């Protein structure tokens, strides 16, 4: 069976799309193609990558113009199954259904809730756009052959709309980030945040908290907001930040090996409360203690597995106190990291989740 994954937003080597889903399908002997923006035609880990350059500026042009080029490339590949990953590609999915193709929609986020926190949308318009998109998405998903959701909470919404909706959690690959060497965690007791850098993901809290502690912060990722906002963040506590910019996967592993704790301090936005951020499980996979936002679901994972500390992400002093405690109690922090790794090995791993994906494809073949 010839399979084509499609994204107009994510990189060709995206962790969930490429390294997990596409690679698992290749290992199960499927012919796998991937359409991705701004890369070259190549073979990557057995996946046939079809790069399309996006010359259009702005989100609206990407949706209106670039998506047409993505659709034409999808038709050219002529796959048996199309598996798309971005909500802006719903119209393409519907067009492919009209071509009698099997279509899977992979839902990474609860987009209507996500829209409520989008700073680039004027606040008075957010609720209206959120409601409008939810109606459109709800109507569209009934027409697809299957839906894959990234969290159980998202799946609860979509299983009511399409009985072929399954949850495939974005848990880590067991071997990717784990290392047996933990000595550096004592010698270099730095805390780490790796991911998209934005206000609602807690960057201001992280940087401000560093002014109140004795160690430093490894910061990996790109600023998701305007340059002006980046300058605002750099005014407070930035002297304690080692900014690493965008990291490749092998670099992520190296940084986590030198870290005593990983930070995941999302603000209590509608799309965050029941989210399962990949970075939290990656910290656990690397055997690193987690300092996370005190949401009920996150508390159940972090404190339930005794692998970290939950804090109010809006309280700089509480975050700083947790960071300093980890620095002052390295043996206990390492024990928490080991507990997190055990939890990954027993239940939160991609090796188990991938079986759900493969079963779905067999049912569709």
From TrEMBL:
InterPro entries: Glyco_trans_1, Glyco_trans_4-like_N. Keywords: Transferase. CDD domains: GT4_WbuB-like (cd03794). The keyword Transcription does not apply. Residues 20-161 form the Glycosyltransferase subfamily 4-like N-terminal domain. Pfam families: Glyco_transf_4 (PF13439), Glycos_transf_1 (PF00534). Residues 183-342 form the Glycosyl transferase family domain. This is Glycosyltransferase family 4 protein. It comes from Halobacillus naozhouensis.
């Amino acid at each position: 069976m010839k399979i084509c994954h499609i994204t107009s937003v994510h990189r060709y080597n995206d962790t969930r799309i490429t390294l997990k889903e596409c690679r698992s399908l290749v290992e199960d002997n499927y012919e796998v193609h991937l359409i991705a923006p701004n890369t070259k035609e190549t073979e990557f880990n057995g996946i046939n990558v079809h790069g399309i350059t996006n010359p259009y500026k702005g989100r609206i042009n990407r949706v209106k113009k670039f998506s047409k080029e993505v659709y034409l490339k999808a038709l050219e590949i002529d796959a048996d199954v199309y598996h798309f990953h971005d909500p802006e590609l719903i119209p393409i999915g519907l067009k492919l259904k009209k071509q009698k193709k099997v279509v899977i929609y992979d839902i990474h986020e609860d987009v209507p809730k996500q829209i409520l926190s989008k700073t680039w949308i004027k606040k008075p318009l957010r609720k209206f756009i959120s409601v409008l998109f939810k109606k459109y998405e709800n109507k569209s998903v009934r027409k697809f052959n299957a839906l894959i959701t990234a969290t159980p909470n998202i799946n609860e919404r979509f299983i009511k709309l399409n009985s072929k909706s399954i949850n495939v959690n974005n848990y880590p690959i067991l071997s990717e980030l784990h290392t047996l060497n933990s000595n550096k965690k004592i010698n270099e007791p730095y805390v780490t945040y790796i991911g998209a850098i934005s206000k609602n993901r807690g960057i201001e809290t992280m940087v401000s908290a560093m002014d109140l502690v004795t160690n430093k912060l490894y910061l990996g990722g790109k600023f998701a907001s305007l340059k002006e906002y980046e300058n605002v963040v750099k005014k407070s506590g930035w002297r304690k930040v080692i900014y690493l910019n965008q990291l490749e996967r092998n670099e992520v592993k190296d940084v986590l090996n030198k870290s005593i704790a990983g930070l995941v301090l999302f603000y209590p936005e509608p799309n965050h409360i029941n989210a399962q951020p990949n970075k939290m499980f990656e910290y656990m996979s690397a055997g690193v203690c987690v300092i996370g936002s005190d949401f009920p679901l996150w508390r159940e994972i972090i404190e339930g597995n005794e692998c970290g500390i939950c804090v109010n992400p809006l309280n700089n002093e509480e975050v700083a106190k947790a960071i300093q405690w980890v620095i002052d109690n390295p043996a206990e922090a390492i024990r928490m990291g080991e507990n997190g790794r055990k939890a990954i090995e027993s239940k939160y791993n991609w090796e188990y989740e991938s079986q759900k994906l493969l079963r779905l494809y067999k049912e569709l073949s």
